[in-house]
Amino acid sequence: MVVLRHLSQASGHAGAAHRSGPGERPVHASHRYRSADMELEAAIRTRRTHKVFGAEPVDPVLVRELVELATWAPNHHLTRPWRFRLLGPSARQRLEAVAGDGAAKLRRAPTLVAVSALSTPEDPVRSQEDLLATGAAIYALLLAAHDRGLAAYWRTPDLLRRPEGCAALEIPATETVVGLVYLGPLRQPAAPPDRGPVEDVLISLD
Q1: Which residues span the domain enclosing 102?
Q2: H or E element in which residue 136 lies
Q3: Which residues of the chain form beta strands (DSSP E)?
Q4: Rounded CA gap, 194 and 199, in Å?
Q5: Residue 17 lies in a domain
Q6: pTM of the full predicted structure?
Q7: Total number of domains in the chain
Q8: Using N-to-C axis directions, what is the helix angle for 60-70 and 124-147, rounded to 10°?
Q9: CA distances from 175 to 15, 97, 121, 135 (A)
Q10: Cα(194)–Cα(145) distance, integer angstroms
Q11: Which residues contact 83 (CB under 8 A, 6 or more apart)?
């Protein structure tokens, strides 16, 4: 099942794919993009939300790799409810055309991925589970992007809760938008936020 859709083609992406010659072993994208030996705990603690990006688009090969990793997120009954739409120039123009004053925010990052979850109104429990699973997939994508040295930002713009925004990205009424992920080269570090003590959120029950 295809879960990554390209909405028109973009060109001039960073990090063109390596083409293996005869007899060569194909180079997996992770070998070209991953930072050296980033541990899981370090990735979780050092990932940040970035709102400033470099101008060069992310290579679609790398986007595909991030999405493939995201699809390993837990999902009840293996429903694979997530859908990822990689926005090309035409899709971005359509979205900006209906964004009004919010169009400038859509230009912050060179690469945008709209993420949605399949909805099953006849089964609200499944819909809730699938929505949460898609959120977990987005988080996996963010961690993978961080591991590869990219800046990322998970937005939930009101525009994608409205019919005109969904129509611009060919998102049907049978899907619920979970986020618009911004990706691009890291331009500047982001300060760590205050997370507060774990005692504020951990409840121990006898």
Answers
A1: 1-8+55-186
A2: helix 124-147
A3: 4-7, 82-87, 111-118, 150-155, 175-185
A4: 14
A5: no
A6: 0.83
A7: 1
A8: 130
A9: 32, 22, 10, 14
A10: 22
A11: 3, 5, 115, 116, 117, 118, 171, 175
Give SS3 for 125.
helix
Amino acid at 27: V
Encode pLDDT of 65-99 as tens digits.
999 999 999 999 999 999 999 999 999 999 999 99
163 assigned to some structural domain: yes
Query: Of 69, 47, 48, 173, which is closest to residue 113 (Cα–Cα)?
Result: 69
CATH number at residue 158: 3.40.109.10
| Structural domain includes residue 156 | yes
- Whether residue 204 is contained in a domain is answered as no
pLDDT in tens, 139-197: 999 999 999 999 999 999 999 999 999 999 999 999 999 999 999 999 988 888 888 99
